[in-house]
Amino acid sequence: MDVKQLTNCRVGLMAWQLLIIAFYIAGVERHGFNIAALVNLLLQSMYLAKFFWWEYGYFNTLDIILDRAGYYICWGCLVWVPCLYTFSSYYLVAHPPQISNLAAVGAALLGVATTLLNYRVDYEKQVFRSAPDGKCVLWGKPARYIVANLVTSPGKSRKLLVSGFWGVARHLNYTFELVATLAWCLPGWGLGLWPFLYFYFLVALLVHRTFRDEEKCSAQYGDSWELYCKEVPYRLVPYVF
Ligand SMILES: NC(=O)C1=CN([C@@H]2O[C@H](COP(=O)(O)OP(=O)(O)OC[C@H]3O[C@@H](n4cnc5c(N)ncnc54)[C@H](OP(=O)(O)O)[C@@H]3O)[C@@H](O)[C@H]2O)C=CC1
Ligand SMILES: CC(C)CCC[C@@H](C)[C@H]1CC[C@H]2C3=CC=C4C[C@@H](O)CC[C@]4(C)[C@H]3CC[C@]12C
Known about the structure:
4 strands, 6% strand
């Protein structure tokens, strides 16, 4: 049995989905139907559906490859995810959204677009890594890549994609994820800072994760990683960071 698949995917993320449905129903029972609360629920449900669609790709990430099934992951997924990740919906139960229907539709469009883009970035890497010899087409052109020698296993190498989104910035999946999260928190606009609690946490987590992931890549690929960073100089937002 895969302990991390059980804690992260089966318990943590399914609790996230069930709790936000319960919070939405509690909000409707208290204050009646509100389109902004529905947008908050539907955007997160879309994000979670996308996660389960892509779940196989998750098995190649830091959480599964690098982290052990210790306190950080177990407590994080069993307690932190159900409490903090659902917080924007929890807050709306006692404080009904104040934004207009038009603003709610705007948030919905932003959320759908950035969730799809987040998926697309992860998908491009998955397609590239599973193509024989890295031969695949991205954005209408054959994918370009750097052959990165593995310092940790001399004689072996892997390919680093420099086409498509992976040629624009080194962690564009995080950038789109942050905007998607902001979009589902927007129904709490005008209710103070609390509805955005998960968004602040995610900014800190993902900025820290860019450094953690790159430390791992630098140790793994050495000079080849430096070369990739020269080709793709920005982490999250081109020309900014
Ligand atoms: N909501 C949340 O709490 C969080 C959500 N996420 C989301 O989870 C998803 C996965 O993110 P994450 O786990 O951080 O990992 P990533 O999908 O960003 O993968 C990072 C790994 O990909 C490989 N890689 C890096 N650059 C390239 C390249 N140019 N070409 C090919 N391979 C490359 C490296 O591994 P190697 O070369 O060794 O294979 C690197 O360690 C994302 O959508 C992210 O937004 C992530 C963290 C938290
Ligand atoms: C205790 C805390 C300060 C920190 C706990 C962190 C963990 C609970 C989270 C760290 C990384 C998180 C995730 C990574 C990637 C994911 C893919 C995404 O599409 C869905 C969410 C998640 C599984 C996410 C879940 C929580 C973490 C493991």
